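Hey, sorry to bother you again with one of my protein questions. There's a protein on my desk that I can't quite get my head around. No rush at all, and the record is pasted right below.
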Amino acid sequence: MFFFNHRSLMDSGGWSPLTSDRYQWLEVDLGERTRITAVATQGRYGSSDWQTSYLLMFSDTGHNWKQYRQEDSRGFFPGNSNADSVVQYKLQQPAIARFLRLIPLDWNPSGRIGLRLETYGCPYTSDVVSFDGGSSGLVFRFSPGLRRTSREVVSLKFKTVRNAGTLLHAEGEGGLSLSLELERGKLQLLFRQGGTSPSEPRRLASLGSLLDDQHWHHVVLERRSSHLNLTVDKHTERVQIPADLWSQKPVISKRSFHGCLENLLYNGLNLLERAKHNDQQVTLMGNVTFSCTEPVSVAVTFHGPQSFLQLPGAAASSSGGVAVGLQLRTWNKAGLLLTFDLPQHGGVVWLYLSEARLRLQIHKAGRVLLELSAGSALNDGQWHSVELNSRGGRLTIAVDKGEGGSAHASPSFPVAIESDLFFGGKSDSQGCRNPFNVFQGCMRLLTVENQNVDLIMVQQKQLGNYSNLQIDMCGIIDRCSPSRCEHGGRCSQSWTVFHCNCSDSGYSGATCHSSVYQQSCEAYKHNGNTSGHFYIDVDGSGPIKPQLVYCNMTEENTWMVIQHNNTDLTRVRPSPGVNQHLVHFAYSTEEQQLSAAISQSEHCEQELFYHCRKVEQNPDSHGTPFSWWLGGPGSGRIQTYWGGAQPGSQQCACGLQGDCVDPQHYCNCDADRTEWAEDSGLLVHKESLPVRSLVLGDIQRPGSEAAYRVGPLRCHGDKNFWNAAFFDKETSYLHFPTFHGELSADISFLFKTTASSGVFLENLGIKDFIRIELSSSTQVLFSFDVGNGPLEVRVDSSIPLNDNRWHRVRAERNVKEASLRLDELPAATQEAPADGHFHLQLNSQLFIGGTASRQKGFRGCIRSLQLNGVTLDLEERAKITPGVRPGCPGHCSSYGSLCQNQGRCVERANGFQCDCGLSAYTGVFCHTEVSAIFKSGTSVSYTFKEPYELIRNSSTLPSSIYSDMTLRGENVSLSFRTNQSPALLLYISSYYREYLALLINKHDKLEVRYKLDSSRDAEVLRSRVRSLANGQLHTVSIRRLTDSVSVQVTTHKHTPAVQCHSQHLLISTDKSDELDPDLARLAALGFTGCLSVVHFNSISPLKAALLHPDTSPVVITGPLVQSNCGSPASANPYAAENTHHLSDQSGSVGSGQPLVNAIRTDSALIGGTELFLCTRTHISPQDFVFGSN
């Protein structure tokens, strides 16, 4: 049976309406509910008439239509491209309905709408029951002899227009009960505990949304022992419940439910069929009918800016007032609901939503004469009633019959319907601009002057006018159910889009998909971080949550440290009646995180210390041990070996090394001596880690005593971070199984190359594909097709990407957008099409480094390739693939800049290392200052060694400068803190009594004294910066090249003062040298303060004294205490630089006195930086020679 809108042409050629617009449809009555599996369309025979896209609607009653959506997002179907070809679509989920409606959206522009339609399916049979919401219900009781099974299943379908009601109630032993209740259109699984007073229910799960839409919804409850799977439509949630919960009876639809149930099954038993035959196990209560009687309620959907509904109002307003009512449903906070003119008064009435509240305004000549507001949270997706009434001079607006709020006013002018009413918007032809947002949502039960509005007459153009509306359906969609926000992101929505709030989740992106944390300590190190606590996310975008660990980066390896609840040495003494001592270790991370972190690491270890006295562990190496420990995944497995031994050996480290105190045993403790013994060592087998529990036996004897300590779990190396492959030609590639990223996918990797283009990754489907490529030397391209046409995202770099350095690529595609990020450049994004992304359907192998066509392959290295948080093992696959080599050396070109302060980058197989041998600093990046505080009487003397022996005469004195060499310059730097002035900071001398001295004079100014000719007095370079003896950190750099000297003083402001003790640092080549009188007096005073990072050319004497005193030419007198006193607390220093040329001015220059007549000085003070420029007339090169004989 066919129904047409307006007059139509129906002949052997097909159907074509007289008017081709979007308000036409073809409706088919199949006579009974049918399972529809496919539809096929064809244009009108022998014509230019066909539709190019269309919508499909289904209904059981011919009212309350529901739009069919492919993949929950795609709303339209592509149609025909000519009049003859047949285009068939198999429905992903069969539609069960009696009525089908096809609505053309677009058609051949050279013709008009033309259609031949065929549907495919099969008959559908069902048992249906209807409840009136009062006392009606159905009870099913178990047979007394019924054997219970470990698996029970209840399945049903329901439809209702009410948003609340109980579908199922099950009771168990001890008053336990489980209920499945509809609440605000969602299904809630509620658990209650029995007792004398009923407890508040605990919500176990919440699924579904908008379930009061008067359409069928499928529910399945499946119990497997103590687990329950709740499925609503296509979405499932798993919860845990008591195993005996259903031991008594389930009560299906325990009153209060108003609606219909279909095909109610318990373990395959059709309960409705049994109820029809008066089965004793099934009892019906109240008004129950075996058919689905449902009310007819016609809704209308407002989609956007062009939507409005116009109804005549003047004829209806016989009372001289206003009485308008409606129900609305929306996600938007704002939108126009109703407007009409007041011609006699010259005003306009506006009823609208703003900030999810109902508001009314009356405007006249641009002024607001009256304003009311009521209600709140009207954008929650629930049906809300709205009423506007004006009678007897009293104006009222009310929400939900007044329960949601109301507001009143008594205007001085009459408010009556004297013109047409406009709902949701206003026609552009009316010449009045809508000052409010358009309404997007649904309306129903419209009344004007207490008369129901027949929206079917509106649809048939017999009443009023409308534009861009869908009548007889509510097209609301809950985009947050199920939530597309991952990892706990909070979902919010409007009518057209949803938004994910990712704050506090540890993830980012449009759907909170990508982790904001690195996957290992190794990755943090290569971002330039130093030791500290970090969150690591071992599987990136995967399901495992981030975990807080300590990353120790002070050693050659980068260690991840995971603590547990007891790392202290614990003593165990005999207790009466106690033969064993049992202790459990709880770790700071969850089990899944712990297992993944161990698996990802190259090496893990844990210290196990065991001290004993008269306590045996393994008296018989082949028998049952007295003590053992549990380690490994889960609760752990029994381990009988101890630190330093092999798994399963029942031995200790001494047994493996053959040095136990008793050669007859394999553990020291088994000697059973009264003296303390120890069996300690490292546990290094990852399969046995971490240590979960420790069981200590043989502690009941008198005199027995033991002590144990289990250290934290330590792991280093990241197998994923350095997993790499090298592709040496364009035709080489690696292949992996098909990538599955249907709705959400992220891909990340690092690459380096000298080629200008090449495909990193490609996976194909029948039509779909996904590809990432280097499209040019400065551009990376991410492209894919998920059924709605190719989409491309590009990122351009300002620097070449084929520079043989590592570059990081991160691509993500989800239902909201596609994004591409390159290194630290801003991400490029492309929004998803209006109907959202389809499922990405791929079926070929995943190609890495090449393509299926063996063209445009990538030449270079790819490293740390991860798809949805899973690392692909490139190295293992490369070992068996021609043209591809595992691994990829050469990391210093990318990471060498992390080595600071003259540190040298050294290549390693997996990564790099900073060699700080030539630096005055230490640490993983040569960034940690080496500082010391000297107590009274402490001194350090450093003797410069010859690089090779020039003279073997024993009388030759050592020197820092060689007789055949001329030292044309030096670089000296150090940092200091002091409250003392005057003070000598540094003194360097040669055999010929030439020296350089750095001091603070009595005026708190810095002085540099050079004496490069023993026959002349020292020359003094003095800074104008005062108050250097203020306890703050200052850094001094002295650079001399021939006759030019520069001195820079950097003061770190806001640095806290440090209490220092008297100290003296003397660096010389001959301790017998005599100091100048002034310097001798200063040396006798000593130095009170801190010295740090002392550097002379390539030598770091203070570092040598503190870190390598046994292998360096240093003499230390008194205690030398290392400190962090040289660590600056401020990153905003100011600097003062002096540039001098040394003078040979004739005449006497007093010792310690500044040069006056010998220099010409130009100075300026610029932002705290003081510059001096000094020159001299002439100087002979030999004046600067440090020599030795």
Remarks:
- DSSP finds nine helices and 88 strands in the chain.
- The domain at 2-123 is CATH 2.60.120.260 (Jelly Rolls).
- The mean pLDDT is 83.
- The longest helix spans residues 591-600.
